[in-house]
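Go through this fold for my students:
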Amino acid sequence: MKLLSTIILALTLLCSCSSKKKEAELLELSKPEWLKSRPVSSAYFYGIGTTPKVGGSVFYEEKAKEKALADLSKQISTKISSEQNLYRMEDNKGVYEYYQSRVRARSEEFLEGYEYVDKWEDLSNYYTFYRLSKSEFYARKEQRKREALQLSLEKYQQAQTANKQANYVLAMELYASSIDAISDYLNEQTSVETTNGNLDIYEASKDALSQLINSLTIEFQPKELYASSNTKIKEGAALLAVQCQNQQAHNMPVQFNYSGGFLITDRFKSNAMGQVKSPALEYANKSEETLKASIDLKSLGRQITRNLIVRQIVEKQKPATSIISIQLAQ
């Protein structure tokens, strides 16, 4: 009796396995062409998503859709990157990663307009197929570029107004915003039509920002200090005048470096009068020490923009400097 039961069970399992094998073979025959060979088209980008059939059908169907759209997004990212050679300065890794994150963000924006095409499933996995019209992609891309150029021009014009009003930090922020608006198109033409003719808005904004930074000057008053050995020179013993285009410049970041030792606080900003007090100093017994002040370009870049490409432009400029001598009183 036991032998008979064992034989029946074995036959049942064999039939079951055979049935599943036949089902798998039949399913394989019904596999669509887009799974057998990834489609390539001049009219569409394609995205294919695959996920195990785990959980309810609603769950794994949604997961497959997410993967298909991610596949679409990856293709668009590759397309955007291939059309735009990476705009880098000194091959800075931070700028490279920043650029790549912008490419990813743009590719996700361009996904609007995708279409469902087909689905298929076997015993273990669920597959789904989506597409995006290339003509729609390029039309959307051109529209966004036109909008970016218009925004860039508006920021540039606002920066010029701020500059005329001697609001130099605001002018720098607006020139930075002008460049930021078109950062995705820096390897393409960035010209716009204005009432005064054609203007390369990127070059104009970059040059204006650079000129503002290079017009910054700083100067100590007085240019020399005298102190006795082992004394403390109080804060504000000297004043640093910060100017831009020969006008007082407020809210400009300045960094100090003291040859006589460590400064507890070495970074300050100019006040409403365009002045910065010298920091408190410990003077030992050397015949001379120096206190050097510089426009802090790194802080200035962070102050006016979050765009790493613009920060690189700022940091590449030559900072204005001034040095005061501290000498031993006779």
